[in-house]
C-alpha cells in the first residue's frame, strides 16, 4: 500500500529501497545470531524477521555502501540481521544499554568533553563511543552520521534509538514503545501522503542534530 501511495518515491530514502522486502529469516539463523553475540532479540523484532522480511534488495548501485541490501523501512531502509554491526565495535551488543543516562545536556557534555582535547587517544575516543552505543543493535542508516538502533536489554528493551556516530548530540529514544509500533508509524505516515511531513520522530532527531552542528 505504501508503494502504491508513493509511486515516485518522494518519501525520504524510498528511492533506495523502493519498498522492496527480502525473504524472511529462518528461526535457526536468528537463534544462531543470538548465541553468537550473547543477546536476546526483542520478540516483535524476531517475529518481523521470521515472518515478514530480513532486509531487501537494493535495485540499483548507490554510493552509500550502508544501504545495500536494505528492505523497506524508515530512511534508507532496514538492514538484514547482523549487517553493519561495526557502528563502533560489535562487542558492545551484549553490554547494558546506557542511553537513558545521557538524556540531559549536562551529563552528555561531561561524557564527551574529552573529545575536544587535541591529546585524546584513539582508544579513549573509542571507549566513549562504546559506552554510548552499548547494547544497541544497528538496524538502519538515516544518512550522514545518523543511525537507527534497537535496544537489546534493560527497561527500554525493544525500543528504537536514534544515534549519531560522530557524537554531535545524545542518543534519543523513539516515542514508540516497540519496533512494530515504530515501523507501523512510518508506514502510516507514507500511506497518509509522502508529500507531507508526518512528523516521524527520526526526522525531528536529524533536524535537531543539524541545528546543533550548525
Give me some keywords for this one.
214 residues, alpha+beta, SMI1/KNR4-like
How would the global form be characterised? globular
CATH architectural arrangement: 3-Layer(aba) Sandwich
CATH topology, anyone?
A: SMI1/KNR4-like
Topology order in helix (H) and strand (E) letters: HHHHHHEEEEHH
Q: Helicity range of the residues?
A: 25-40%
The number of domains: 1
Q: Which class of secondary structure composition applies to the elements?
A: alpha+beta
Would you count the extended β strands for me?
A: 4
Q: Give the CATH H-level superfamily.
A: SMI1/KNR4-like
Q: Outline the biggest β-sheet.
A: 4 strands, antiparallel
List the uncertain runs. none
Strand content: 5-15%
CATH class: Alpha Beta
What is the CA-atom radius of gyration, in angstroms?
Answer: 17 Å
Task: Outline the structure in words.
The protein is of the alpha+beta class and 214 residues long. The protein has one domain (2-194, 202-213): SMI1/KNR4-like, CATH 3.40.1580.10. It is built from eight helices and four strands. The chain has helices at residues 2-5, 14-17, 27-37, 43-51, 105-112, 122-133, 179-192, 201-213; strands at 136-143, 146-151, 160-164, 172-173. A four-stranded antiparallel beta sheet has the order 1-2-3-4, with helices on one face. The longest helix is centred in the last third of the chain and has 14 residues, at 179-192. The chain is globular and about 50 Å long. It starts with a helix and ends with a helix.
